[in-house]
Amino acid sequence: MNKIVNKITLLGLVLVAFSCVEAVELATPNVAAPVLVVLEGNEFEATTGVAVEGSFYELDKSGILDRTVGIDSIPVSGLDITVFINQTEEISTLTTDAQGKILFQNPWNSLGVPDPSSGTQIRLEFAGTYNDIAFRQYHNVRVK
Q: What top-level branch of life does the organism fall under (predicted)?
């Protein structure tokens, strides 16, 4: 009986010793998004098409430790935004205005939905590059 307990204990110690490996780096590099993306509009009538409003902000964190200042949102103007469906199919290219805003408008058939019916859903992807850092924001739109 003692031999079995000793073998189980030894096996447990071996498992613990080899299961704890310290990783030097993350498996996938995480980079903070260079801009805050706010997308509005996700349900649209079948007859009207899609109209998504987007706002793009750079976050000024210089006042993060001052509770009276906090984090400030600065609109990013002149930012080129490319809209995709199916990850690689480019649908539109837009540029943000002075307030950091865009308006993406397209009929359903140009988004690959020739006969929109209630509940049909697709994923739009808004992509760009700011300060040499690429970003991509996903946004689902659906037929009412």
A: Bacteria
CA-CA distance, 69 to 55, in Å (whole number)? 22
Residue-wise pLDDT tens digits, 72-99: 899 999 999 999 998 899 999 999 999 9
Q: Nearest Cα to 72, choosing from 52, 89, 57?
A: 57
pLDDT band, very low/low/confident/very high, at 9 (cuts 50, 70, 90): confident
Q: Give, in degrees to the nearest 5, the angle at Cα 104 between 35 and 38.
A: 30
Q: CA-CA distance, 139 to 38, in Å (whole number)?
A: 10
Q: Are 133 and 34 in contact (CB under 8 A)?
A: yes
CATH number of the domain bearing residue 127: 2.60.40.1930
In a domain, residue 3? The reply is: no
Number of domains in the chain: 1
Exposure pattern of 37-71 as b/e (b: 16+ CB <10 Å)?
A: bebeeeebeeeebbebebbbbbeeeeeeeeeeeee
